[in-house]
Amino acid sequence: MSEPSKPQGRKFQLPEHLKVYKDVWVIVEQERGQVHSVSLELLGEARKLADKLGVAVGAVVLGEAGPDLERICGDAFAYGADVVYRVADPVLKDYRTDPYCRVMTDVVNAYKPEIVLLGATTLGRDLAGAIATTLATGLTADCTELDIYMENRSLAATRPTFGGTLLCTIQTLAYRPQMATVRPRVMAMPERDDSRTGRVVDVFPALAEDSVITKVLSFIADRERNEAQLAFADIIVSGGKGLGKPENLKLVFDLAAVLGGEVGVTRPLIQAGWATADRQVGQTGKTVRPKLYIAAGISGAIQHRVGMEKSDLILAINTDKNAPIFDFAHLGIVGDALKILPALTDAFSRRLSVNRLAS
Amino acid sequence: MHIVVCIKQVPDSAQIRIHPVTNTIMRQGVPAIINPYDLFSLEEALRIKDRTGARVTVLTMGPPMAENSLRKALSFGADAAVLLTDRKFAGSDTLATSYALTSAIRKLAEEEPVDIVFCGKQTVDGDTAQVGPGIATRLGLQQLTYISSIDSVDTQAREIVVHRRSEGGVQVLKTALPCMITMLEGTNSIRFGSMDDMFRAARTPLRVWSKDDAAADETKVGLKGSPTVVSKVFVPKPKAEKAKFIEAEGGTADAFAAAAVEAIFAAQPKLSTDLLARAAQG
């Protein structure tokens, strides 16, 4: 990576009083006792950054006191933390912006980390935007690469912009902490090491529930709902106009069922009433990033493309070998989706049932 | 009831091209549109207006040509529009932008208190999702991001109940006004404005505010007010090549399918273990 160019007319030196900021922190995201995998990935990344800087990795674990919180503190050590800041309070049981932001602002001001990382999730992006404002510091969203420029010990956060047509590297030079969010599955998951331990710093924020205006009335888990959960699906099979008629969408559902995946569609199918809006993938629908995306009868219009091109692996099926989808899919089949889809359903179910017998 | 909807005029990302020699964005001829995510919030604001008779003000910060987006928003049914424009705002990052917009919202609130601020979930050019939370934090508004539905707005009790997307499920939240809301994509579609609204949009005078009109502190906007520094901009390595076409003996659907399954598992070995593990669990 080349040296950063420095625009004129601004201060880029870290003021003396901010030089006491040390350590690389990860705010560990947990909801209802489940740690989000992105937090563990970030601990691995924080470890690399901290080793470069010669500082410690701190993990902030917030929630209600109890066995879940204890287990998560253990996980934080196992994935790379040296210090765990354990923030236990009944008010922190469910995520709400205001109490989480208040507590994190206080903890950062008290312990002064130089870098604070969060997952670019609904929680992480909500919280990071609030904390960066109370701390009046720089925040870089949705980074795909983090590095340290050693000459000034600053975080170089690289992120896509303009819908991924450009990458830019962003730094926060004269403010601390330097904050960044990173999307799930961008960074590699570190090896778990249960022999690792560290120091626990207990923080008792003593929050009053009366002081929190927003109340959580209930939580509806995705598995209890019928709505499509595209944004979080590992596997998505999508259909487009090439399927010809609404009945043929069943072939897409069949393949998705065998793969344990979700079904997506293009905007024209929503407009034609073949499927409900919760299944639309694209610029005005959902942005998805599954491990496998199978596009059947989809030409690959930019509207659809921007919603799915970051998928790990894209298999496109289209009769037209010049369809734009083949410009960015990884694997292509030139053929009739109506014939290929059932054949794929068969091939996958055979492959997966063979293993079930063997295991 | 007064609602402010913050919108941004953005280049239509579908039509952005990179100059092959200079590696810079070619903006010429790229149409400017209202950030698509903002339209879900604008529509939701207009629905509240339909139900409660609320007044909807659209606000944008940008160059003078952002007037086009404000006129468009008026044509959908917004009542008033403010264009916050000043050379001093150039180069503002999200912290400085949220400061500038907050200054303008404070100014609007002096005329008529603001009950709800709507922002887009994120923009299609910056993609940061930071300006909404920045405004909420500065104004002390209850922060409601990733809202998939607004169940009720009680203007008497000043209470609002919403569904908020979170990881693994939906939170049902009840809070008090004033609040800041960002709507999830796909939750509604922007209406066609009525003929009356279109005529009104063309006639409505825009309020054009400078930094001083919004009483914004010069040291907190533009490059000076921005903690982040863009140190490098570059074009990602182009995608290696076109899709690898799967060949199949005889060209039957079954042969293609078998070859495709092998190719998928070869490319993503971890996917195969995940799938097999899931299948083994039944």
TrEMBL record, chain A:
Domain Electron transfer flavoprotein alpha/beta-subunit N-terminal: 24-216
Keywords: Electron transport, FAD, Flavoprotein, Transport
Keyword Transport: yes
SMART domains assigned: ETF (SM00893)
Record bears the keyword Transferase: no
Pfam family, one: ETF_alpha
Family per record: Belongs to the ETF alpha-subunit/FixB family.
Stated name of the protein: Electron transfer flavoprotein subunit alpha/FixB family protein
The organism of origin for this protein: Azospirillum oleiclasticum
UniProtKB/TrEMBL annotation, chain B:
Domain Electron transfer flavoprotein alpha/beta-subunit N-terminal: 22-218
Keyword Transport: yes
UniProt KW keywords: Electron transport, Transport
Matching Gene3D superfamilies: HUPs
Subunit structure, interactors included: FixA and FixB form a heterodimer.
Protein family: Belongs to the ETF beta-subunit/FixA family.
Function: May play a role in a redox process involved in nitrogen fixation.
Protein name stated in the entry: Protein FixA
Lineage: Bacteria, Pseudomonadati, Pseudomonadota, Alphaproteobacteria, Rhodospirillales
